[in-house]
Give the backbone structure.
Amino acid sequence: MQLEEIQKLDQKYYMNTYGSRTPVAFTHGEGMRLYGTDGKEYIDFLAGIAVNALGYHHPKLTEAICEQAGKLIHCSSLYHMENQAKLAKALVERSCADKVFFSNSGAEANEGAFKLARKYFYLKGEEKYEVISTVNSFHGRTLASIAATGQEKYQKPFAPMPEGFIQVPYNNLDAIEAAVTDKTCAVFIEVIQCEGGIVIGTDAYIQGLRALCDRHGILLIIDEVQTGMGRTGTWFGYEHYGIEPDIFTCAKALGGGVPLGALLARGNAANAFEPGNHASTFGGNPLACAAGLSVIEAFEEEGIVENARDTGQYLLEQAQALGEKYGFVTDVRGRGLMVGVQLDPALPGTNVVSAMFERGYLINCAGQNTLRLAPPLIASPADVDGLMKVLADVFGGF
Ligand SMILES: *Cc1c(COP(=O)(O)O)cnc(C)c1O
């Protein structure tokens, strides 16, 4: 099918939640590259929004999915599943978690985290249910996830919000401290506000939150849906701070593009759910977990996390050097292969995104007019050089 036909069907039959989409429909990909219905090649510096960590058509991931599809796709959690048990073990061995529960998405993993935090205090006989999160955060689109997402545009049309969620400014320890009440069960944060414009939590903030939660006897929950699975140059983003959350969530890159999310917890929080408390029809099925297992294997065989760190550092340095040449670049920041280039409000980032698209590069614009560079974690320094050349050309035209 050609793009125009797809667009017609989309317009007629698909709910209009995405507005005017970028005018391309991809048919397939290879490594860092995607191909449109017209055969045009695009170099991907967005990775399906931090999902496709291994790029496209990765042999190991493709083979694992095909092989599992030929054996058993789904069977229900009424029964034991080898891949589910193995992937839970693999994640526990690579993180601070003691136990795992699988979902299909980031928002669902976050729902699980809110339930787990409330259940933890329910077991202790304490009425604590309030979750403190931050302004300009993003935690997904279910009702509880938007209640925790500190952006009015996501909440307003869907009022009333579920009870027990409050937001305070990010990177402000005093604001969290002031918001804690005897009803607070958890502080819920991203170590980098990704959709919020690649705003990095300071060491003092994240470490301070750990101490604050310990002092008040409440849980620290970290939303690692985007920062997890190697994106920032460590398996999980919290590692950069030398602290451990009580609960964290993960999704985007976990299944290499196959829908898969995880709720992870350590200590007593890991044992707070009891039979009947939580479940998911699809969550952690044999197919999704086969994908997850092959992602972890490929990460380790190919040094993907180290590459995210080193190539990410190179990307950051190159973007900073480029940014210095243009007055409209107001800040460049990042960690691993997650780099934000903030632009002056006079130059809408969406204009740069369109110009890059015309030149065959996929990037997007996140909060506060910030270009987001989040390529597959297989990106090489040569890929970065290619991007910088085209970005310089585009910047030169504004
Ligand atoms: C994408 C994202 C989510 C939502 O994940 P879905 O899979 O779309 O539900 C939640 N939190 C963060 C930090 C994200 O980046």
